[in-house]
Records
---
Amino acid sequence: MSAELVVVLGLGLGYFALLLGCGVAIERGRIPVRVTRHPLVYTLALGIYASAWAVYASIEFASQAGFGYLAYYLGAAGAFLLAPVLLVPIQRITRTYQLSSIADLFAFRFRSRWVGSLVTLLSLLAVLPLLGIQVKTLSEAVFHLTQSRYSDGVALLFCAAIALAAILCGARHRHQHRHDTLLGILALESLIKLAAMLALGGVALWWVFSGPQDLQQWLDGPGAALQAATPRLESAQWRTLLLLFFAAAFMMPHLFQITFAENLSRHTLLQASWTLPLYLLLLALPVPLVWWAAQSIASEIPLPAYAAYLLSSHWGVGSLAFVAGLAAASGTMIMMALSLSGMVLNHGVLVARPPEARSNLYGWLLWLRRALIVAVVASGWLFAEGISRDHTLTDLGLAAFVGIAQCLPGMLALLYWPGANRNGMVAGLIGGALIWLWGLWLPLLLKAPLPALVFIDLMPPGAPDWYTTTLISLSVNIVLLIVVSLFTRTSEGERSAAEACSVDAVIRSKRLPLEAASARDFQAPLAQALGDEAADREVARALKALNLGPEERRPYALRRLRDRIQANLSGLMGPSVARDIVDRYLPYRHDDTPGTDDIHFVESRLEAYRSRLTGLARELDGLRRHHRQTLAYLPVGLCVLGDDDELTLWNQALSELSGISGESVIGAHRDSLPAPWPALLAQALSATGAPLYKQPVNLHGRDHFLTLHKAALSGLDSRGGSVILVEDHTEMKWLEEELVHAARLASIGQLAAGVAHEIGNPITGISSLAQNLRFDTDDPALLETADHIQTLTERVSKIVNSLVGFAHGGRQALAPPAEPVALGQITDDALHLIHLARSGEDVTFDNACPATLMVQGDRQRLTQVMVNLLGNARDACQAPGRVTVEAGEHNGLVWWRVTDNGEGIAPSVKDHLFEPFTTTKAPGEGTGLGLSVAYQIISEHQGRIECASPPSGQSRGTAMTLWLPLYQQDDRPAHGQDTDC
Amino acid sequence: MYVYRLLLFLVFGGYLLSPILMGGWNEPGTAWYRPFLIWGALIALTLWLEQKRKLDER
């Protein structure tokens, strides 16, 4: 073994050790996530598009077609420039349905495992020549550096290292993981490749030439003849090449996976729309420089692909070219192995042998995947050893690119023509692929041209094989796709998948009921297909992704759960197998009722796509949102139910009234609502004609009276269902009761007026008799009794006058006399009267009012107020009770407070405390007029009453505080008092 | 979304006109870096459109 070979081996293995170190650093978190998930890392990982073709075949192609080599870079740049209209829609579909390969995408769209298998087979055949290029360039690069006969063996060793790297990066874990490590390693490879290529360009420009001007002088002078001798690409051939590389940029299996399945977000993809073209520009720049430099050095270049090795005899320059080629080949082969192994697994192995319920499903799939990775890399090596040697890199690469371009008509139909069906797709693909195999692939295999194609006469004479084969195969492909699709039947499943895939289309999902009644019911049927462990994990994973709980029962949520499980299984086993499992084990319940559109789902999709709508669609969406908001913010409760009793709308007012958020019940069945709503809504739905008026219901512990109006949603384009308007008439009901109460009060007032009139005469008689008694006796006890009788009769007269005044509109019958009165004295009088009642002996009364504190008013009426307050305070106290009367001055007002240590006043009573006939006493013990009369009297004295229960700083009791104007010496009597009329 | 239409116009226009441009690149006396300058200008335009799209969707 030569020393050069040992050095190359060291260089290559050192390179793989560097990749391994980078992978370990990412796995262990040594490199921050903000770096590994940066959009630039994704762009660099996309740089695997630049395979060994970019390093070697581009120079070869430049030697054959001049600037025509740029088609490889500009085609891919064009695809990414169109990312918003081309790649983002594909990304949306692949992310939504967890489709990781181009075969998954086609199998999903055309609802056919045959389409998936066919695309997999075509991809495998198309990729083999490209794999062959990678291995061939590795082997030949080693040979150019070392001239060793062991170069093939070294290439095999590198292939083994690449297979190992692919397994470590993409098939190491049993469960699916984000491939940060994979992206990081591919980005590093792209960076090394770019640095090596720029260095080679630098060598060519400043080492071989003396700078840009020297190069230009060479091109205009000695090199002009060489450039003039370089063949030119025809316009049509140039355009065809652009188309081929455009298609390859996102449809080659490894590029599809890195572009869509390993993508971080829509934002990163959009950013790649200009960063990837920039990367490709930098990579394309050194290619002509290297070629021109080699031309300027050597008059004869037998293998233009390896012109970089002629730039200098310095070993470092050759090493740069070798490292660039190794980085390009290994990155491409790693991704090819991962993507093709997944495709063969999902659309070959699992279709031929569906997974059975096994205890270790994930492990089984993992080992299958690893074996397939090794098989893909080995097939690339075998292809290179057996076939690639006898062909140029350009021939091999173009055969691969034309092969994969056969998927382009199907891809465009997938995005833009919902009318395409699986028959058309299969016919077009088979037709195009057969022509491609005959025109390009089999000649590679047989190393000899086959008889000319039937349409060859239509092509320009002397056109290269790749050009004629491309035109004929794509034409046949497109014609078959269109014609067969137009004349054959499209299944219902294909139609819905076509809507899901079409640009600007929204899936009109049907609202079908599932057999499973809750999320928990998903596990057992799935276990029959996947085994207990996998079923548990998949259900839990889907629930977590949707933020649902295992007790979820809403039909809408269960449908989303089913979709999510299908999408997750699709990522694991491909869409065909996933669909079979879900259809069989999580079926819909098929009854006679036709499924209606899932409006809520459609709306959620519309919300997500809003920014993509333009023109009339955007205006219509604006109107939809306006009407939606009108219903959502309607100040009256509103809900909409489908014909299957599934709730499709629950507006904000109804959420506030019911305490049930719309988010938690939209998509739920009516019966799953909390009480009393199921019964109430059922009653409304079954009612015919008149609304349900003032239905008593208890919501959050309070009685409510709800009125429900119903309307059936029918007519043209209607999706059926009913709308129910829920009005809260609780307040109105209370007002009605108040009205009745007020009418009753008015009647009682009239009655009281009559009674008062009748009582007035006997009272006057009693008063006269008491006065007479004072003249008839000298007994002090009798005289005192007579005084008391007279005082009490005066008080009765006042009460009678009050009743009459109340009955006549709440005004005092007579104007109150305004005189200065001492609050201490009034309090004493009131206490004296209270004591006469001979009840409340266990209650202690304290009069703490200052004797000098005076107000201006009617002594009798103020005494009446105090008697009422003291009476209430006494009745509220339990033995031993204590009632305190205090008074004081504050800001020109007098406060006069009665405080007891009783039980206090209930909040419900407190709101109506001063209304007539409000009482908590037993029937016959209180009229309910005491505080009402007190309120009236104090109001007439320009004062107010405040109630604190319990008083501030106390745990129980009540404080009634009267606020009255302070009497001052210069006060004049009040004028303009109302009089009874 | 209107930005996307501009992109479509740009890319398909470039696709159709590119053979004319390529003919110029191969003429003697043409600066060797001219294709890369045009390409760079196209990238700058895309970057500008991308910024505009972000503003549109905000």
Note: Chain B has a mean pLDDT of 79.
---
Amino acid sequence: MLDQAPPLRPKSGATDNERVIKLALLAVGGQGGGVLADWIVDVAERNGYVAQSTSVAGVAQRTGATIYYVEMARHTGRLPVFALSPSQGDVDILIAAELMEAGRAIIRGFVTPDRTTLITSSHRIAAVSEKVEPGDGRASSSKVHATAEAAAKRFVAFDMEKIASDNGSMISASLLGALAGSDALPFTRESYEQAIGAGGRGVKASLAAFGAAFDRARGAAAAASPKPAEPAIVESALGAGQLRGPQNLVQGWQALAARIDLMPVAVRDMALRGLRKVVDYQDIAYGRDYLDRLDKAVALDDAGHAHALSIAAAKHLANALCYDDMIRVADLKTRSTRDQRVRKEVGAKAGSILQVTEYFHPRIEEFCGTLPAGLGSYIENRPRLAGFLDRRINRGRRVRTDSFAGFAMLWFIGGLRRWRRSLLRHKVEMAHVERWYALALSHAREDYALAVEILNCRRLIKGYSDTHVRAQSKFDRVLSALDLLKGRDDAADWIRRLREAALKDEKGDMLDGALRTVATLGSVPAN
Amino acid sequence: MAERSFAKEVEKLRLGAGEEFAGEGILAITKALLQCGVGYVGGYQGAPISHLMDVLADAQDILGELGVHFEASASEATATAMLAASVHYPIRGAATFKSTVGTNVASDALANLASGGVTGGALIIVGEDYGEGSSIMQERSHAFAMKSQVWLLDPRPNLPSIVKAVEDGFELSEISNTPVMLQVRIRCCHVHGHFIAKDNKRPPMTVADALSAPRRDTGRIVLPPASFLHEKEKVAKRWPAAVDFIRKNKINEFFGSDHGSVGIVMQGGMYNSVIRALQRLGLADTYGETDVPLYVLNAVYPLVDDEFLSFCEGKQAVLVVEEGQPNYVEQAFAAMLHKAGRGTRLVGKEYLPMAGEYTGQVMLDGIGSFLRAEAPHLLPGEVRAPNKVGDGVDTADLINVVPGRPPGFCIGCPERPIFAATKLVEQELGKHHIASDIGCHLFSIMPPFELGATTMGYGLGPASASAFNSPNAKRRSISFVGDGGFWHNGLTSSIGNAVFNKNDGVIVIVDNFYSAATGGQDILSSRASNRTKSTKHPITEAVKGMGVKWLRHIDRTYDVGKVQDTLREALTTEEKGPKVIVASSECMLNRQRREKPLVDKAIKGGERVVKPKFGVDEDICTGDHACMRLSGCPSLSVKSLDDPLRDDPVASIDQNCVGCGNCGEVADAAVLCPSFYRADVVHNPGRWDRFLESARRAVIGMMQRRRESRRLVFADA
């Protein structure tokens, strides 16, 4: 007769002896989540627990988000009824093998302040959607960190991928170390290490990664999200950063550096970086040219605006003057520093030899750009001639820069640097820089913010060949809104919005949408 | 050879009576088959039972010792037709495949098998899932069971129950002369658990015995008038036999109090999540002890009327927990109660959603609200009137931050360059109608490629484009089919059909040497030699044999330029009839699995080995990410530079790069940028290598020093 409430059954987890521990593991396919799940089951069984693990390892889903689930309870002779998948608000330990997967776990309700220990690696594996944006499409890690702090009972986060690779192992090992170190499970460190040992393969490396992560988890409470580096305060550009070279060039450099010391402190860091880039790209004279232009911005500037105009000018002028032409590419690929960087990047051990193949695909445009201005434009103005030449030039070329011939060719092209100023590409680029820079400064007096935003639009210009052409057109389309916008209080905001829209997709569809909106604003000054 | 090897685990299949088996669900099922004296097994791979096929394949020696025949069937139809061996002969047979897609393919054979009936036990193990665990359309195998009158078992998801279900299934099949379907879900297939083993049984009659003493019985053949009699026999003889067996052997289970005002009926597969919900409601303990009467249907078809009616005795309301729709079980029970004139209220989809997976939360909400409404007195106070539950964390804006992470092509996948080339061709010739198929290549529908309009089934890609064949069309259709789908039925349904109907479209056969999406099982065109199967049958030969005139074979898909040119030619040639391109390169996942150990061994052994890897010159990359819009490779990603002058992250290639070449090929074919380089690392270089290297270093070093002595060199530049 169940007319009145029956004596209440002990809830799962009511008595410690019968408590079911629920552990969910979210990973990106290919991270070895299965290995980790097996280890955890093994550890549990070694400690006299019954454990059950399940997964939805779709066989082909190797790069997508995957989830593994483990339940365990102390062995009492009777078999518990375990669930086969995690439930919202009912997870004790959530392990995420990547930061955004931790975010996903929180969204799915698997992380709750009353009970969940959230253990996540703080490294990022960018999703395709984050990578394909022409600008910076990456998700905000700090937002996930902030929410996790609030959502979890305990939050353990650090870069377990790095610990794994530093120890020549996989992240599954460092995740297990973090789990053990967090003490979220009532098991000894030894039992974890025995489980790894029983696994057989790569035991030594796994144990090393496990140990490092274990100590880190013991020591570290949740590691805070990486902070952006503070801009360095450059007291004096003279002697800042070592450089070597012929005496006369060093003197030339110091003369230029001295000019930076006359600039407002706030501007110096960016100006110095810009100057280095420009001098490294061409020569001392080019650096002088850079500073002459920069001075115009500084003259118009004032501390009231924290010198935003000068800083933007210092940054974008440098990028504009260092346009990416064949000469620069060849120069960069034939430097001695590059060999070491490549060896490091591909992890080539001492004693092994490196064979480096470069992928070039020159077109008539690049060819003409590298000719004396007169000759270059002569050809460009004759489509049939240009077409004829293009058919001979326009082809993919693989160049071995570790071979005599290949290196010599690039070395020669890099050597054209000396004549760069007389080449067609330079004329074109400088004309563009003049137009843009003059346009920006012309607004500095009546609308300072707008001038800064126009300078920032330089960010849009990047890429090679077609990508570069598309970038140019985005740049022009954004600035085409100026006539409609100037005079409005929010002109600067609009240019910024347009620029951000332009960086969202390849063709600039969002930009066109934004431009249509601008068109509806009408040119009536808002004030 | 399959991606995952069970070579070690299958040794567990030798366990004898009384020993404890510990392992995965799929292994338990295989062990159960052997304990039942199965005579032959076969099937077609596909999650969640791909691994069951892999286990069987890896267990062939053990099967052989017992005289059990194993067949890696060409399709689910083949696998089901194979069960014909149990029609006249008392041999137990088992087939396994993914449902409902596999059951769709198998349904012709299934209907014939079910009509004539079986003498030996015939078991069909189907994997079916709702929600997260499923990659296919959401349908129910239950409908097939009902329409062909095949019994359907849905055991509780723990190893002892699954093993028992296999044993019961064979007996049930023999006693009622009816094939039996055993349904398992993906988490059940991969669940790690224990059970006490029995000895393996040699089949009392092997297929060899049968062949030496052939039998036939016209009465079992599906042809009038026999087929009319089959239908009568189904209802008059087989059905009652099945119901009796289920009742007598207590296939369905009762838990909890045997009296109470409410009760819950469920599919066996739902048991664990129902118990979890009751635990969270404070009505069950860790071991599933509860006061709520439970009726667990390990056999969901046929249903046992009197069993159910007696469960309803004295109950005001009964909840049916039945995942998926239509809610056949609930409807059947409702009819029983109505005809029996009972007053018990039957509810189900009122409290639980009509569609979708019954997750823990869904179950908690559904059962919770059922009990609140029908039996509040059972519930502890805090559950009856809960204080506002809510973790107090607002995740609303997090939803806009966390990016989706759909599955995609692996690192170095040979299919990536095919779709990069397709995207480039479309940039030249404009958008085309693209029909997709089933397989890894279907990931082309995802960013960054976003190619493909429909997927109509395995091997049916080109077939699904067959209507787009018009004399006044300006553009041709493009359709894709994988090698798996090609051999499954694409050869006839897609290629043959295109030839016969003079389809003018372009067909791309993606040949990666395996049935890759299901775990790298071998197929006819696999290049590897297989101990027990005949491989190395070129797709091109089969296509020619079908009468295709315009045929191109690309033997290195990473040659993006070549794929692009071939595709362009196919789309523009004057030639009529189907244009077939066979694009072949080995699945990188399987290739790495095969080669990596050998390469590492060779390097350790001091042999000369050249290992390619790609890289990006970060000061040449401008951060426009055009390369990633043509790749999506997991190892090609973005990284920030420690340089205030640079706003956008640049491309970067991580250590997992296998040097497939796609990056460089795409940069070249699409005329992107000169940032990429391929670095071939020569391990253990020979004397000549070292001589050449030192000579080159000398000259190149000299040139570099010369230039660098005449310019300013910044320490950190």
Note: Chain B touches chain A through 141 residues (CB under 8 Å).
